[in-house]
TrEMBL record:
EC number, as in UniProt: 7.2.1.1
InterPro entries given in the database record: NqrB (IPR010966), NqrB/RnfD (IPR004338)
Job description of the protein: NQR complex catalyzes the reduction of ubiquinone-1 to ubiquinol by two successive reactions, coupled with the transport of Na(+) ions from the cytoplasm to the periplasm. NqrA to NqrE are probably involved in the second step, the conversion of ubisemiquinone to ubiquinol.
Biological classification of the source: Bacteria, Pseudomonadati, Pseudomonadota, Gammaproteobacteria, Alteromonadales
Bilayer topology: Multi-pass membrane protein
Family under the similarity heading: Belongs to the NqrB/RnfD family.
Subcellular location as annotated: Cell membrane
Gene from which this protein is expressed: nqrB
Cofactor(s) named in the record: FMN
Broad enzyme group: translocase
Principal location listed in the UniProt entry: membrane
Membrane-spanning residues: 51-70, 76-97, 109-131, 151-178, 185-204, 250-280, 287-305, 317-335, 347-365, 371-391
Organism: Shewanella youngdeokensis
Coiled coil (residue ranges): none
Protein name in UniProt: Na(+)-translocating NADH-quinone reductase subunit B
């Protein structure tokens, strides 16, 4: 008993951060042993654990469709004469369905994709968790649940054939160098998932940028829409933006039945999940709208300018929306509450910069047709500056109003 007659919490010290790995896991799965007690503390139903759970649920449509699309694209490639890979990850599929064929049904295609995606996500999850525990132990802090969503986002923007050792290296760089060295969750100014992708993108380009890594079969040599347009194989000349809504190829891209990274192909699934994120107010609509408007304005300007040598100049904004990783970046990466601007005006400028930079990199640099990754990382660096400029403008305006 203490002086107020309260019984001591026998578990508080044992499960407190910094005591043991078991304490970290208890804090992660159950509750923090040092939660505030008493009537003087303000309580809110939303915390980090609930926030990350909601974000994970919002990503679920893209995850489920991504796993099915992995199997579907592999089936299409097999029908064109490609050979399924001989991988240990496919043991569950091979045991239940044998070999992938044109007759493999929905359940088989889904299991094919699940068998390849699950090891990628689990590798990212456990490596991320390892570094979170290490840094939490060193700092004597509680374990934060942010690693759950970081691992999800990182795994969804990777090609399905990415080697697991590269997955481990990428998530390690993103978590350690872009997050933990700056103080951990809440202190990082770069998105860890995108920083990890940028690292392996430039360190191991043949393992990440090669289109053969996007399809889980041997010998695939196709190309994405962005790649084909950059190579001049697809022309958007005399193609108004509204014509996309009557184009079956655009609808395939919108629904997600195309080649791409694991969780970025279905714009519809990402908009559904992102819409739920906006309804829960975990994402700011100003950022999403600004990114979209920045992309539309920039793409339209390039359409007006035109180019006889670069077909990407003519690509309308409706196609920019459904190609590459634009949708997942707009809904889930750009809206990261830690790395974005905090002021309302800053968020608008931040989003416009991302939309502008993503199209600019796509169009002006045909060798790197996917620009949204670098656009967000670049905007992350400018986010604090935008907030500073907005704050200074407010101070100057108030001083002028008050005659100071």
């Amino acid at each position: 008993m203490d002086q107020q007659g309260n019984k001591p919490d026998l578990h508080a010290d044992y499960y407190a951060p910094g005591h043991s790995v078991k304490g970290y896991l208890y804090s992660l799965l159950v509750a923090n042993g040092r939660s505030n007690k008493g009537k003087v503390h303000v309580r809110d139903a939303i915390d980090v654990k609930r926030t990350m759970t909601i974000v994970g649920l919002c990503l679920l449509p893209a995850i489920l469709f991504g796993m099915y699309n992995i199997g579907l694209q592999a089936q299409i490639a097999v029908g064109a004469g490609m050979v399924p890979p001989d991988l240990w990850q496919l043991i569950p599929f091979n045991v239940l369905f044998g070999e992938l064929t044109a007759q493999t049904g929905f359940a088989g295609l889904f299991l094919y994709g699940f068998s390849l995606y699950a090891p990628i996500y689990l590798t990212a999850l456990w490596v991320n968790l390892f570094w979170e525990v290490v840094f939490a132990k060193v700092r004597g802090q509680e374990l934060q649940e942010g690693f759950f969503v970081t691992a999800l986002l990182f795994s969804l923007i990777l090609p399905v054939s990415t080697p697991l050792w590269i997955v481990a290296l990428g998530i390690t760089f993103g978590v350690v160098m872009a997050k933990e060295v700056f103080g951990g969750m809440g202190y990082n100014f770069l998105n860890p998932a995108l920083a990890g992708l940028a690292f392996i993108y430039f360190a191991y380009p043949s393992q990440v940028t090669a289109v053969s890594q996007l399809i889980a079969v041997d010998g695939f040599s196709g190309a994405t829409t962005l790649m084909q347009t950059a190579a001049g194989k697809i022309s958007f000349a005399q193609y108004p933006w509204y014509e996309a809504f009557t184009d079956p190829n655009w609808w395939n891209a919108f629904l997600g039945f195309t080649v791409g990274a694991i969780g970025e192909t279905s714009t519809l699934a990402l908009l559904i999940g992102g819409g739920l994120l906006l309804l829960t107010r975990l994402a700011d609509w100003r950022i999403v709208l600004s990114v979209l408007m920045g992309m539309i304005i920039t793409a339209t300007l390039f359409n007006v300018i035109g180019s006889a040598k670069n077909e990407l100049f003519a690509m309308p904004w409706t196609w920019h929306l459904v190609t590459g990783g634009f949708a997942i970046a707009m809904m889930f990466m750009a809206t990261d509450p830690v790395t974005t601007s905090y002021t309302r005006s800053g968020k608008v400028v931040y989003g416009l910069l991302i939309g502008f930079m993503s199209v600019l990199i796509r169009v002006v640099n045909p060798k790197m047709p996917e620009g949204i990754m670098l656009a967000i990382l670049f905007a992350n660096l400018w986010a604090p500056i935008f907030d500073y400029l907005v704050a200074q403008a407010n101070i100057k305006r108030r001083r002028k109003r008050n005659g100071i």
